[in-house]
Amino acid sequence: MILKTLEILQKVKNNELTIEQAQKLIEQPLDYATIDYDRKKRTGNHEVIYGAGKTKEQIIGIVKNMLDHDIHSILITRVDQEKSEAILKEFPQMIYDSLSHICYIDEDQKEINKGKIVVVCAGTSDLPVAREAMLTAQFLGNEVELVSDVGVAGIHRLFHRLDTIQRANVLVVCAGMEGALASVVGGLVDKPVIAVPTSIGYGANFDGLSALLAMLNSCASGVSVVNIDNGFGAGFMAHTINCLGGKK
Amino acid sequence: MILKTLEILQKVKNNELTIEQAQKLIEQPLDYATIDYDRKKRTGNHEVIYGAGKTKEQIIGIVKNMLDHDIHSILITRVDQEKSEAILKEFPQMIYDSLSHICYIDEDQKEINKGKIVVVCAGTSDLPVAREAMLTAQFLGNEVELVSDVGVAGIHRLFHRLDTIQRANVLVVCAGMEGALASVVGGLVDKPVIAVPTSIGYGANFDGLSALLAMLNSCASGVSVVNIDNGFGAGFMAHTINCLGGKK
Amino acid sequence: MILKTLEILQKVKNNELTIEQAQKLIEQPLDYATIDYDRKKRTGNHEVIYGAGKTKEQIIGIVKNMLDHDIHSILITRVDQEKSEAILKEFPQMIYDSLSHICYIDEDQKEINKGKIVVVCAGTSDLPVAREAMLTAQFLGNEVELVSDVGVAGIHRLFHRLDTIQRANVLVVCAGMEGALASVVGGLVDKPVIAVPTSIGYGANFDGLSALLAMLNSCASGVSVVNIDNGFGAGFMAHTINCLGGKK
Amino acid sequence: MILKTLEILQKVKNNELTIEQAQKLIEQPLDYATIDYDRKKRTGNHEVIYGAGKTKEQIIGIVKNMLDHDIHSILITRVDQEKSEAILKEFPQMIYDSLSHICYIDEDQKEINKGKIVVVCAGTSDLPVAREAMLTAQFLGNEVELVSDVGVAGIHRLFHRLDTIQRANVLVVCAGMEGALASVVGGLVDKPVIAVPTSIGYGANFDGLSALLAMLNSCASGVSVVNIDNGFGAGFMAHTINCLGGKK
Amino acid sequence: MILKTLEILQKVKNNELTIEQAQKLIEQPLDYATIDYDRKKRTGNHEVIYGAGKTKEQIIGIVKNMLDHDIHSILITRVDQEKSEAILKEFPQMIYDSLSHICYIDEDQKEINKGKIVVVCAGTSDLPVAREAMLTAQFLGNEVELVSDVGVAGIHRLFHRLDTIQRANVLVVCAGMEGALASVVGGLVDKPVIAVPTSIGYGANFDGLSALLAMLNSCASGVSVVNIDNGFGAGFMAHTINCLGGKK
Amino acid sequence: MILKTLEILQKVKNNELTIEQAQKLIEQPLDYATIDYDRKKRTGNHEVIYGAGKTKEQIIGIVKNMLDHDIHSILITRVDQEKSEAILKEFPQMIYDSLSHICYIDEDQKEINKGKIVVVCAGTSDLPVAREAMLTAQFLGNEVELVSDVGVAGIHRLFHRLDTIQRANVLVVCAGMEGALASVVGGLVDKPVIAVPTSIGYGANFDGLSALLAMLNSCASGVSVVNIDNGFGAGFMAHTINCLGGKK
Amino acid sequence: MILKTLEILQKVKNNELTIEQAQKLIEQPLDYATIDYDRKKRTGNHEVIYGAGKTKEQIIGIVKNMLDHDIHSILITRVDQEKSEAILKEFPQMIYDSLSHICYIDEDQKEINKGKIVVVCAGTSDLPVAREAMLTAQFLGNEVELVSDVGVAGIHRLFHRLDTIQRANVLVVCAGMEGALASVVGGLVDKPVIAVPTSIGYGANFDGLSALLAMLNSCASGVSVVNIDNGFGAGFMAHTINCLGGKK
Amino acid sequence: MILKTLEILQKVKNNELTIEQAQKLIEQPLDYATIDYDRKKRTGNHEVIYGAGKTKEQIIGIVKNMLDHDIHSILITRVDQEKSEAILKEFPQMIYDSLSHICYIDEDQKEINKGKIVVVCAGTSDLPVAREAMLTAQFLGNEVELVSDVGVAGIHRLFHRLDTIQRANVLVVCAGMEGALASVVGGLVDKPVIAVPTSIGYGANFDGLSALLAMLNSCASGVSVVNIDNGFGAGFMAHTINCLGGKK
User: What is the mean pLDDT of chain B?
Assistant: First the structure.
């Protein structure tokens, strides 16, 4: 059972808890998680919760604990439908985006970065990953534009959006299959490109390996890569880079 | 020792060889190779010699045997510098192309296919493979044009050559690293594209694996793939396809 | 919501839409897909919809949009049973082939290629892939014959069908396990062979890797390879090649 | 033979070259390379020459051609000892760094970025890669500091350099073996980290695969990855990011 | 059907079984398993049952047989929920730990080792594996302390627990993703560290391969590795090592 | 619909079928399978049906067709529970072994080989594969003995069964995990050993890869290997070898 | 220094060695190798020396020791040119086969097996492996015939040798690239086939992996596999099998 | 140039160095290495130098620096012949073991651990790795016994040494190929076993992968694994464990 700080103090007063028990509860009330309350101060961002591999009870416990510590900007990634329902029942103020499997609440004030991030996405099937990148970057305080379904097999579609792409400060490129879009975009801009291989494809795609290797071997300079399907990581990296250009 | 047919017959007459010995020598004089004299009749092309893994003595024996059977169009692939010297010493009429490691003689009459084959090559480092494809297709009776150093990181270079590319009947695309060129070319033409991954690159290139997987996962239709660095195979396949368009 | 062009124009007239909104809807009414209306003009074929990784709502939206643009030859690959039911409920004129998981409508006039494509299939278990190749090639305007269950372990079965095989203009060979059929067929014909590794097998098959590697290493010339289980890609490539032989 | 523009014009005047020949020589005098003279204008940086897989004759030809076009900032990566000697004999003004295998000339004026790039290096054996990153970033106009031999097995060594690390605008982390340094650094800063896996190690290192996978799976946010041993790519990416912070 | 020894003897007396049948039943009553009754005498520990790949009937048969041989300390690993219900219905005295999927009964007297084992766990998602290690080591007679959620991305969390870590006699470190925690802990202690890669992660994690390779390549000395997710193996190894320090 | 030969002839008489239709039906009545009726004559054994990847309708069609051709010894491998029910409903004379997933009927007379085959199995979890080998070898006419649960971690269990093992004419060794049993057995006998890696294990087992590689690298001579989990293949190979020793 | 037994005994008599020292020298005079003198008695064959990874001094020591124990049939595999020269200088009675890298002496009387072994070899480049198999089987007492250069791309070459192939008692099939020959041969005979993948090929051959996987997935029954390039293992296995057919 | 502390102080006195320069030289005189002088105090052992990837100049600099700091027990691993010569020329007091490629000096006093470490080695070819383990453990203060050439193919050889093996406190097992020895030894003892896969083998050994996977999947408990060929790591781990048993 997880108690609010006030309740803990009350219990100390009532001799229901010893000083030592109370201190432990206040400092680290969860035995399965060590929450990094200082993270925002240290790195500028609140800790994000990686939802996969955690039970819904654990996630709810962590969120409750963060809310109790007055953290009101919380992003949870990789929350499946079933967990999302339990979470939203407990915290109706949270929002669930079923495409990207992100669950979040975003009530803190924040400064917005000056530069724009553009998320480019090869095909409709890559949208969940692209959207994870977009929501993450927005959550962290960035203006984001999404350019969708512009894969290299019909490269004129990409050129129709060249203006948008070349106005970006940072780019995130999500592509599965042969992942060629990252190299093509990288050759068209002089801004940093974060490439996200997706697991879209089959057979010799080997769950995203083909796009991952292609992106790591990009002949375009100014391209770096995050893990397969790691839209969150790309959005976070793009934000970290975008901060260098200053706030609005 | 390998004898010319005439010498064999002379020996039979002189009772130096039995009829049975002579027959065996005429039909299969080499104990390490079974030459397919009917291949041209059956498949339209002479057997090509795969030079890797054969000693220079074996290659010379096979060539001598083919010349004795009046085969005067011979292509040997993957001949290293040292073997080439031994071969050219024995058969000064042969030509060695040190970039593609091909050794050939090409004295037969042949009909030329109507359509043109265009070999597109991503970078200067991919030239040896591209050239193997080009020489193979020329040897088999095709007009071939080479478009070099048009990788996707500077895609305008490719568009400068669009005319040439779109006039091709069949295309061979050689690229290492992320192998994206095959998909981009595949999206620009309505003709068959043979993609050749090359082993150019390093690290997560894994000796051509990145380009191979990328090409197999091409989002462009009308693209098929041959083995890594298999310029010969691509040239041969392009020729086989080009034959469907008829002879000049 | 997706509107027909007429409805959009009506709304403009009624001032329910601005000119700008209408233009955007007409040109690209879907925010998750960039349909390539000019593809037929540019590459000779309508865009095919890759069904995997798209929701049924997205597929229905794309089909509706294409029909509104008077495209009446539509092929959707990798449609599972559940999606197919939703699609056929919306568009009863479409046909679903449950073996190959293809959903299509084929009402456009088209010219038929002169040469015949033969799809050769190693075992009964490879039929779904072979059928995807066959339906694709038929859809694109080719006469196709299927030769089934002629794997190399009983090679006489293949020789019984030699006539059919040698009359083909282009061949597609589908095989799982050791994928040897492609090499054997490649040695028997002088026409292009498209090899399709299938994921049929188990253990050291590694989901089709064994057949893929075997086919890429084929000792027969005139063989090129598409992705594992990519019957569609093989059918498309065979069609592209077959076009070179002219129309009936 | 490669001619200077003046010589070409002279030859035109002397009727030694036709107008068409001259035009071709001026625009693309090399048949093996398509030099991207506009790259600086388009992407802000001159094209860098990838030295591996090119013959020394090809490299010399490209450099000569660039100098003739008044490009005097040239960086060539992956130049082995033997090639470097031929290049320096031809162009004594070039400098060869034998540790990083970079060959360069750097005579253009350039603006320097405001922020500092810090290159962190796990062990002495990773120095060649770290130095490739450092020289690249310096060449492109950045102030770079190198922090060497601070691997995680003795993590206090890293903490001794915390000040330097936390003052960086962008970080490049080079590590082989288990590549853990990238995650640890990523957790200590709020700036973008470019991780470079190196091939240092043996056995289950699989030529850098262990560090590559580790870095792609980093539990720290704000980390992205380039190819194994790709110090150049990391230096370039760090520069591209650092540009966002403005010039001095 | 499995009989107790007494029942067997009774049946021999009643001539329902021959001497030979009885001997076989007593010595090896199960045709699907060869139980190693002497294991405790030989290696100091009872055989542990590997639950995966065995039917619940087989597990129940083995447990019944062991109980009949007066073995009352039994540990079964990898028991899923459904099997656990069948087992607990048959043996209500057994305990099921649903997090680690361990089912056990622990009624034998045992000596406790002097040194303490500390199990360190990178994230909440790694807890099932850590708990498997902890329960195994406790079952075998060790005092175990668990330090949870101290991954390297927030390395100060680890340092808060340094005292606990440095007081351990043996350490087990469970981590997924990049598995860096093992190297960091290994550099902070002079005691043996057993590293357990977990399959927590996604994409280029390849089901635990990234952490496995990272741990095998640890730059810290005094670290050895067990199979991915093998909490049991780590707990067992830690116990075997801990025995060297003597009993309480 | 599949007709018996008699029915076909009746229909010919009734003019319900043309001569040509009838011939086709008699010779190859199934469009999805090419049954090899001469296989027994040619190779000594009836064709075995590989059940995976075939629908139950296809399997039933093939069995019906074989029965119509008076083949009454039929073995179908890899039949899951659901397919088995459909098959047994149609052919109640067939037997289904749920452990090995084999479905068979065995009514032909056959000669039995003189030598005994011994199937050795490392653990209870490997039994399904071992049983597939055993049933296959019995079906083909061999006396088979099963030695179960004698893995190398308690090697005395193996030595208790040494007599049985050394009396075998051919051995089949099934083991998962590290697959060491094959080498140990191979060193104890002078008879051929067929090693079957099983997919039993987890983590770095990679679905049987560890045992497969181990067995291929066996330091014992006289060991050869079949595919992972291929109990059928091992049983068949053991039979083929055992035939050399003659019939009883 | 290695002493002959007689010298040892002499030294004991002279009190130059204690009884214990002498016993140790007689039983195991080499500190780097434990020679298995009883192997012939136990398994029917003398131990074969694996030459790779041993120094020439170690090999010479082992041979000297075996000769001293009156073993005069010795086979050493994988002896490179340089080691062979040192060995032959020491033991001029040994024979070195430079193609297969086997070094042997074969002076023991031996019985010859009744059945014939046929070694089938796909291409000239596979000959070294085929010859290793042939020499091994001959050394162990078998009549062996070699059928060379009959790869599946020209399958009529194989059919010309069908008589030889079908008269074999056991077959060894050596093939690189796609390794299809094993399946084709396996379908043509009813005798055991030992498949040897060779490392002949390039690119996606991955040093023999393609042929290895293909052979493990053979759709023909009665085929089992040894390690890549393991001609010795295949020859040994074929001999072990051939023994079952009895001696001449 | 590297100066001894005395020389530095002299230079300070002579005003040849500033105080700041001197301090830096004393504390970290090498710009390519951060020597961990406190390591012995912190972890009980001096830092070991990983020789691979360092130039001989770097190694000599580090050794000189350590000697200057009065460290006289230095172990350098992976020193090739050429580097060793340069090192021994500089430091004649060092010893080079050419089999294990270790270079060391061992002049510090040290306590010896009570328990014995036994290094077991499968074949003569695995000796270099086994010897690296042995020398490392001896260097760190352990009594070590080597049991060589007792691979599982002739398992009686292992049983002859059972006494030695069962008297060990800790065991190191080095084996290549199928790596089965670790499991067999693990089943025979109740002490911790450190398994070292070696790269001995060929083909599907994949440079030690087969032994590595086998050892990670060991069915014996109490076995953990270090990197391929990492004899040093195994020796170090064995020492760390052995310390728990106390000093002599």
Answer: 87
Q: CB of B76 within 8 A of CB of B86?
A: no
Integer Cα distance of C80 and C103 in angstroms = 9
* Banded model confidence at residue E88, pLDDT cuts 50, 70, 90: very high
Over the range E169-189, which residues count as b (16 or more CB within 10 Å of their CB) and which as e? bbbbbbbbbbbbbbbbbbbbb
pLDDT, position B111: 86
Closest approach of C59 to chain B, Cα-based (Å) = 18
Going by C-alpha positions, the residue among A203, G160, E107 that lies closest to residue C225 is: A203
Contact: F219, H177; criterion CB under 8 Å: yes
E132 vs F: CB within 8 A = no
Q: Is E212 on the interface with F (CB under 8 A)?
A: yes
| E75 vs B13, residue with greater confidence | E75
- What whole-number distance in Å separates Cα of residue H128 and Cα of residue H150? 15
CA angle F171, F177, F183 (to 5 degrees): 40
The pLDDT assigned to G94 comes to 94
Rounded to two decimals, the ipTM of the complex is 0.86
Closest chain F CA to residue G222? F237
B91 has pLDDT over 60: yes
Q: Which chains touch H (3 or more CB pairs under 8 A)?
A: D, E, F, G
Q: Searching chain H, which residue's CA lies closest to the CA of residue E36?
A: H187
- The two three-digit tokens of residue B48, written as one number: 């090509």
The DSSP result for D117-175, as a single string, is EEEEESSGGGHHHHHHHHHHHHHTT-EEEEEES--GGGTHHHHTTHHHHHH-SEEEEEE
**Tens of pLDDT, residues H5-15:** 556 666 767 77
- Are residues F148 and E32, on separate chains, in Cβ contact within 8 Å? yes
Half-sphere exposure of B131 (CA within 13 A, CB side): 19
Q: How many CA atoms lie within 13 A of H8 on its CB side?
A: 19
Contact A129, A228 (CB under 8 A): no
Q: What are phi and psi of G53, to 5 degrees?
A: 80, 0
Determine contact: D219 vs chain E, CB below 8 A: yes
Is the model's pLDDT at C1 over the cut of 60? no
Is residue D188 within 8 Å of residue D166, measured between CB atoms? Answer: yes
Structure tokens at H176: 């290549």
Q: What mean pLDDT comes out for the span H218-237?
A: 95
The tokens describing C45, both together, are 């074929």
- Strands B116-121 and B170-175, by their bridges, are parallel
From chain E, pick out residues whose CB is under 8 angstroms from the CB of H43. 187, 189-190, 222
D208 touches chain E (CB under 8 A): no
- Chain H CB contacts of E185 under 8 Å are none
Test G148 with B39 for CB contact under 8 angstroms.
no
Q: How far apart are CA E144 and CA E133, in angstroms?
A: 9
pLDDT of residue D135: 96
Contact with chain D for residue A48, Cβ under 8 A: yes
> Running DSSP on this structure, what letter comes out for residue E226?
-
Is it the case that chain C and chain B have 3 or more CB pairs lying under 8 Å apart? yes
DSSP string, H193-205: EEEEE-----GGG
List chains touching B (3+ CB pairs under 8 A): A, C, D, G
A10 and chain D in contact, CB less than 8 A: no
CB atoms within 10 A of CB H130: 29
Query: Is the pLDDT confidence value at E35 over 70?
Result: no
Chain H residue numbers touching D123 (CB-CB < 8 A) = 50, 53
Phi and psi at E140, nearest 5°, equal -85, -5
Q: How far is G225 from chain H (nearest CA, A)?
A: 11
- For residue B171, the distance in angstroms to the closest alpha carbon of chain A comes to 16
DSSP state letter for C115: S
Q: Is the CB of C217 less than 8 angstroms away from the CB of G204?
A: yes
3-state secondary structure of H20: helix
